[in-house]
Design brief:
Shape of chain A: globular
Radius of gyration of chain B: 22 Å
Largest interface: A-B, 48 and 42 residues
Oligomer: heterodimer
Distance between the termini of chain B: 16 Å
Number of helices of chain B: 10
Radius of gyration of chain A: 24 Å
Shape of chain B: elongated
Order of helices and strands of chain B: HHHHHHHHHH
Order of helices and strands of chain A: HHHHHHHHHHHHH
Structural class of chain B: mainly alpha
Strand content of chain A: under 5%
């Protein structure tokens, strides 16, 4: 319980700092947003009007308070470029990005758990070297290059999907998942590589423990020990890493959505940055950071529930 | 055989090739990087154009090796700035402890809960995009992990016997810090510097791909890939040349990093 309270306090503090960072980054760094949006040739009247609309004529603490209370009440402001509430812009896109992220996580776990276990099993063999080489390759391909390669090889050469033709979930769910498999794979490859490495290391560490010898002495089969005892403990030690991967998956999704033309949060974010749509960028950044911090918090709690040892240490 | 020798050989070989090509582009490129040749548009790799030409008839090899120079410059500047700032913050936090430590580490925690790319995007939105903005953005992005490493290294030896005895002999705080404590963080710091290189290259090329990094007409690997994306079917070399150069560079740095880890840090 004390652990939970401590975590909650840190969570709130972190979110407060994040909101300060996000807010002041847009206000302290050089440049007047109104000027940047309208360009240098804008008339003073127009600039004043926009400043008033953006609220940038108010003192900073007042602006911050207005922004954060609005945010907490679900009022995310209005996008300049789309001239519509940011909230309406978010609603469909969140679904797309979340589903993409989920697919990445499922893919990553499906591949890296068996691969990591196998890698721990075949220590000091050719097989291990091949896996080592593959993980090294996996972390060395930038996601956008991998995406382009996938579009070329799977799309244009093998005709497994049609690049550039995004299928909306509401129109054709099967088509949506079919199309999204390839971007999800592009994001998942480096994650698979990293997770495989960690699972292997965690497995090797667990394998050297006493309970494994005991289990072997009792005559349990090799795979019984690996999957029944060792993997369970190894997974627990890898869960914090999965929490950290959420942020990376989102970063990957920003870029990969751009390459594949997927209308998600990432694409909206890049459009807002290139279009200098400050309110939209600010809100998106805050929103995404919030989701990531909360997910990490949830993962922390999950570890508590799964592994009583940590709970006892408190 | 010494641990990690193969990693070092492969790593230095690959990064050596890229660095050599990047330096070569300073004094010589086979063709002018911006010279267009309408007659030779999208020609396949040949002796005249080693990696072929792009949709404007520009020589892809010349552009790719010039791009290497820009990317390596950004990576080196980023890692350099990050190391200096993080060393100061990490040493201060680890050595002084108390409130200073608490403030620095809370800020570092908050900063690291952002995905790095968001920080970079904020900075690029607010400032003009270009080489120096990218360096600033990536530096802020890498600060948290580097600071943590220096702090951890500092904590490990702050109260060690040799530091205490030097204190008794009258060494000033600053001398203790710089001569006795700081060098102990080097092995860990070195491996993050090397990994930092590959992360910086990944981040810079991603930003340039998105059009938020190095601005055209200056060639950058990320931008070249963006331009090559729509013609990948007819002219795959336009994408493969910069793409594979990124991969080779990153593998090179990762191998060196792995070598350092195996030789100096591994407990096995």
């Amino acid at each position: 319980m004390r652990y939970l309270v401590k975590k909650l306090v840190i969570l709130i503090l972190t979110m407060f700092l994040i909101s300060l960072f996000t807010f002041f980054a847009f206000h302290i760094l050089p440049g007047d947003p109104a000027q940047l949006i309208l360009g240098t040739s804008a008339s003073p009247e127009k600039l004043d009007a926009l400043r008033q609309q953006l609220g940038t004529d108010q003192p900073l603490p007042v602006q911050y308070r207005a922004w954060i209370t609005g945010f907490l009440h679900g009022d995310f402001g209005t996008s300049i470029r789309y001239s519509m509430p940011v909230r309406d812009l978010l609603s469909d896109r969140i679904q797309v990005t979340l589903l993409l992220g989920l697919m990445v996580i499922v893919l990553t776990l499906l591949v890296s758990i068996p691969l990591g276990v196998h890698a721990a099993r075949v220590r000091n063999t050719i097989s291990e070297r091949i896996i080592n080489g593959l993980t090294m390759l996996g972390i060395s391909f930038p996601s956008f290059f991998l995406s382009i390669l996938f579009m070329w090889i799977f799309g244009l050469v093998l005709h497994l999907f049609t690049p550039g033709r995004y299928v909306a979930l509401s129109e054709d769910p099967a088509g949506f998942f079919h199309f999204m498999f390839f971007p999800a794979l592009a994001i998942a490859v480096p994650e698979i590589a990293i997770l495989t490495k960690y699972i292997r290391a965690a497995m090797l560490e667990e394998l050297s423990k006493d309970y494994v010898r005991t289990a072997r002495g009792k005559g349990r089969s090799r795979s019984g020990i690996l999957y029944g005892h060792v993997l369970k403990n190894a997974i627990v030690s890898v869960i914090p890493l999965i929490g950290m991967m959420i942020g990376e998956i989102f970063s990957g999704s920003i870029i990969v959505e751009q390459v594949f033309g997927i209308p998600g949060i990432g694409r909206l974010l890049i459009a807002s940055v290139t279009g200098r749509d400050f309110p939209l960028t600010q809100t998106l950044v805050m929103y995404v950071a919030l989701v990531i911090v909360l997910t990490n918090f949830a993962v922390d709690i999950l570890i508590q529930v799964i592994d009583p040892r940590i709970r006892l240490q408190g | 055989m010494k641990k990690g020798k193969t990693d070092f050989i492969v790593g230095f070989l690959l990064t050596g090739i890229i660095v050599f090509l990047a330096l070569l582009s300073l004094v010589w490129t086979p063709c002018d990087i911006n010279a267009t040749d309408a007659a030779a548009r999208l020609s396949a790799p040949s002796l005249q154009h080693l990696f072929g030409t792009d949709s404007m008839g520009r020589d892809v090899f010349s552009r790719a090796i010039t791009g290497a120079r820009f990317t390596l410059f950004v990576a080196a500047a980023t890692v350099g700035c990050t190391t200096v700032i993080a060393s100061i913050l990490g040493l201060a936090a680890g050595y002084l402890g108390g409130a200073v430590d608490e403030i620095i580490m809370r800020l570092v925690d908050a900063l690291s809960s952002f995905p790095g790319i968001l920080i970079a995007l904020i900075i690029v939105t607010v400032m003009e995009s270009g080489k120096y903005t990218i360096i600033l953005a990536l530096t802020i992005m890498f600060l948290p992990s580097f600071t943590r490493i220096v702090r951890t290294g500092t904590l490990q030896v702050r109260d060690a016997g040799f530091v205490r005895s030097n204190r008794v002999f009258g060494d000033s705080g600053l001398r203790l810090l710089l001569v006795h404590i700081f060098p102990n963080t080097f092995p860990l710091l070195l491996s993050s510097i090397v990994v930092g290189f590959s992360n910086a290259i990944l981040a810079e090329s991603s930003m340039s791909y998105l059009g938020l990094g190095i601005q055209p007409p200056a060639p950058s690997w990320g931008r070249m890939l963006y331009e090559a994306q729509s013609i990948i079917f007819t002219a795959p070399w336009c994408a493969l040349a910069p793409g594979l150069m990124i991969v080779v560079t990153i593998i090179g740095f990762n191998c060196i990093g792995e070598g350092i880890r195996k030789r100096y840090l591994a407990q096995e």
